[in-house]
Amino acid sequence: MYFVRVNMTDRTYQVTEVPEKYKYFAGRALTSNVVADEVPPLCHPLGPNNKLVFSAGFVTGTSAPTAARISVGGKSPLTGGIKEANAGTSWGADLANMQIRGLIIEGQPKEKDQFWGLHITWDGKPKVEFFDATPYTKQPLSAVYPPIYEKFGDRVSVCSVGAAAEYGYSNSGVCFNDQSKRPSRYAGRGGLGAVMASKGLKFIVLDRQGAPGVEIADKALFEEGRKKMIDALRTHAITKPKGGLNSYGTAILINIMNEAGGLPTKNFTSGRFEEAPKIAGEAIFETNKDRKGKEIFNHACSPGCIIQCSNTVYAEDGSEITSCLEYESAWSLGANLGISNLDDLAMLNQLCNDYGLDTIETGTTLGVAMEAGVIPFGDSKAAINLVHEMGKGTTLGRILGAGTETTGRVYGITRVPTVKGQSIPAYEPRAVKGIGITYATSTMGADHTAGYTIAPEILGVMGKVDPLSPEGKAALSRAFQATTAFIDSSGHCLFIAFAILDIASGYQGMIEEINGVLGTNWTADDVVKFGAEVLKVERKFNEAAGITKAADRLPEFMKQEPLPPHNTVFDVPDEALDAVFAEL
Amino acid sequence: MYFVRVNMTDRTYQVTEVPEKYKYFAGRALTSNVVADEVPPLCHPLGPNNKLVFSAGFVTGTSAPTAARISVGGKSPLTGGIKEANAGTSWGADLANMQIRGLIIEGQPKEKDQFWGLHITWDGKPKVEFFDATPYTKQPLSAVYPPIYEKFGDRVSVCSVGAAAEYGYSNSGVCFNDQSKRPSRYAGRGGLGAVMASKGLKFIVLDRQGAPGVEIADKALFEEGRKKMIDALRTHAITKPKGGLNSYGTAILINIMNEAGGLPTKNFTSGRFEEAPKIAGEAIFETNKDRKGKEIFNHACSPGCIIQCSNTVYAEDGSEITSCLEYESAWSLGANLGISNLDDLAMLNQLCNDYGLDTIETGTTLGVAMEAGVIPFGDSKAAINLVHEMGKGTTLGRILGAGTETTGRVYGITRVPTVKGQSIPAYEPRAVKGIGITYATSTMGADHTAGYTIAPEILGVMGKVDPLSPEGKAALSRAFQATTAFIDSSGHCLFIAFAILDIASGYQGMIEEINGVLGTNWTADDVVKFGAEVLKVERKFNEAAGITKAADRLPEFMKQEPLPPHNTVFDVPDEALDAVFAEL
């Protein structure tokens, strides 16, 4: 396996063997360790000393199911701390098949407004060529992917950044192609798109032709694990074919969270949105049927996925508006803005994909802008205009592009739903206490994927616990955060958790897959230890960057404003929050 | 002495005796202790739980010379930490004469866009009445002071906030009248204006008629000290009548700092500005003479000042453009922007006074905006337009009003001269190392007044030390910071330091004045101890607010970009920075 280091200051690169220290790291474990080892914690995130690190997971690129995740790491311009964001895409599988364990982008060119692309091919080992990407800038990504595919061939995978990143927005993601060559799968959170663009880098095109693929140390063990994993995913009600996620996509959660009173509405002033059913997964499914959309059941974001939860939203004439409209996006751009027009909501989502914006951060930013009176709540056409402002880099667009916290500061708003500078996603912590602990304490800023306690608190995975109670939730969040750090390193999609937490053989299968690939003898204990070590490394970086436990807190208003319909505040004591990492 | 607590939630007030704990606190010591005791460190600075605290110094309101300082404290919207900013004004003397040791503004009204004024009179004890101040909003302060004086009489003193504060800008100061009823003396740094406005408070009018004045425990001792202080101030070259400050104002430093290569120019890309002489104190003096301005020699900002360093800048026709154009303002709005047109520079200063903006933060913000290409360096007319945008609350104006760091973030700029969110003032730390240590470690964010090592490093006060050397500067900054915290509590203007650090009897005089007022037996050792305790209280608040030693650093670019003409970087080791407070 290789480390490929690309120096954007002088446009050179180096290919080396993976250093000994990193031999048993991949995905998030790899990106976070490289960032911790090599990035000065106090560097400017958009300056020459930050680095952008790509790594696929241990089993990415193999035949393991639902395992095409690519991790992207660096110092975040949004949080000022360490960041790992991941996405499911053939790009991850291709990177792994080219045996690139770490792709590390360093330095910064002197010239501004000139952008480059990398074309990485296999020539006995990875080979990097640079191409001028400036002609592709300041356009919607859906307009530039076709010519890129034309230039490099249908079999390549494409990573890119959009206009948002070119403008240096703290809200800008790193984009990857889906199975239909759409620029739609995002390592979205934390502004790593701007880090990539700050290095003058617009595209990374992978052509895996001739590459040897992922080496597997113990094929029989791997195969055994893989089968267990497949069985678990095919059995569990949430993950099985034509199950919850496959039929309705992640937006199936809209009605569920609304029912639970935990669907943040109109900039976190209520936990219930009257018009929620209009933007729910069920509504998307029925609307697509009515409109005779090409795909009614959902598709896979990346090769080898069993869950296949990515939807497409079609217009009245049956043409595609966007793919994929996730729960978090339907929430942030819908309920959180008081918007229930599904077509406009889908368009908002598509604009985020085209401009390279994180949908969650965009929606929460517009929520704060609405609270500031920039546009009214519920005005979907005005919201579309605001996202266009962001995409055009206007003065107003730049404010919004800087994210929710900055927008709150610019408009002097106090109800600003952020932790460590990153906005709170689609699950109200006043109604679901465990997820609030994850938001508060995650090394990533507010992030549901960092420790998805929604599984037990709302979905009854591992048995149901009371979402409104703070009891025992610190331990729950801690366990989820550690396990998640491992899953994020495995290459599997986090959604395997639904199946493997309920079906023990699935969990065992995950471990066997990885032991098969690496030739290790890891146990279930090692999973948690490994994850905890990743968290500790991230935590240490954050401390050196000036982020302490005082930042492990939800915003003041959530402790003081009762949230309808339960009329509860976030009442987890600070001591419980501090215990999450103290007892790790 | 009294504590007056005004609750803006329900517009009530309470007058009590000063609590025992605060009996020997005044000025900064009082505001910082009340904030530390009563304000939750993680509260939103513009929310109902922040407080705004006013306190005059120990000898303010007495006949002690150069001692009319008023301290304003609270949690800063700019730094997120504790803030004390002070100004020289009759308002401070009046507050002290009304025996109000602490005026504490609490709570927040539900209605937005409605503003109130307080009219505080003496009726056997302090009496507070509320008046509707909404009609005075969104206007230049120079337009609203005359009707306020008309309404309440010529003898009142007036504290106010301008439009910048009404808009909630993190760059907005608390304004006080000068001796000619101008709204021109600012507790400017850190955004406390927005805190005041967030409480629905626009004015605090003091009418001291009938008030008993400051009680003096030992009049003979006080008188002895006062005479020593007067002698020192009248003797020292910098502070004496027709001396440096009286003749040329603080802007005398323009040529001195330029000569030293430490005048930050064009957003901190050089330490020397070719056109510096055009905006220097000498130029102001000569121009005023040519233009037959009313006051050629400078005037006092507040009653009883010997130094009298406040200048006025006159237009060609002899009419007044602004007062006072300080060194830091002439630098921030001049050299830092590449602007040398004195009339336009004076107009920029006046607009800041009228809109309620801190001149330092405004200039550094415009510097970053110029670097971002919003307007060109050196374009003074365009700069004037930008300040008008701020005053009007336009979209662009709001970005700039949020301060330098936010503007940098919005435009994706990496050369952003801030520490703890507050911009670096008029002395280049790469050319003057000691002041860089003060910027880095001050509890206030970058602040030259927190520990003015310029006195020895540039002006030779206490003997000259090499500004370019980092040696011994941590100890120097520490000593200055502690002594300053005491002076900021004494009620004296910081400029007494020039005289009392060179003339031992002056230093003794300061202590005797205070012992005379309080009936204490404090010694020179107690001065440093007292100051150190204030710093520790502030530091503790900041730590609880999430500000740690990782924030005690200058921005990355100052450690990496050599600054012409000396081509030096800021090379004080982190260990020396950490030692400032570790050894306090």
UniProtKB/TrEMBL annotation, chains A, B:
UniProt key word Metal-binding: yes
Entry's family note: Belongs to the AOR/FOR family.
GO molecular function: 4 iron, 4 sulfur cluster binding; electron transfer activity; metal ion binding; oxidoreductase activity, acting on the aldehyde or oxo group of donors, iron-sulfur protein as acceptor
Species the sequence originates in: Bellilinea caldifistulae
Record-given protein name: Aldehyde:ferredoxin oxidoreductase
Keywords per UniProt: 4Fe-4S, Iron, Iron-sulfur, Metal-binding, Oxidoreductase
Cofactor(s) this protein requires: [4Fe-4S] cluster; tungstopterin
Domain Aldehyde ferredoxin oxidoreductase N-terminal residue range list: 1-210
InterPro entries, alphabetized: Ald_Fedxn_OxRdtase_dom2, Ald_Fedxn_OxRdtase_dom3, Ald_Fedxn_OxRdtase_N, Ald_Fedxn_OxRdtase_N_sf, OxRdtase_Ald_Fedxn_C, Tungsten_al_ferr_oxy-like_C, W-dependent_AOR
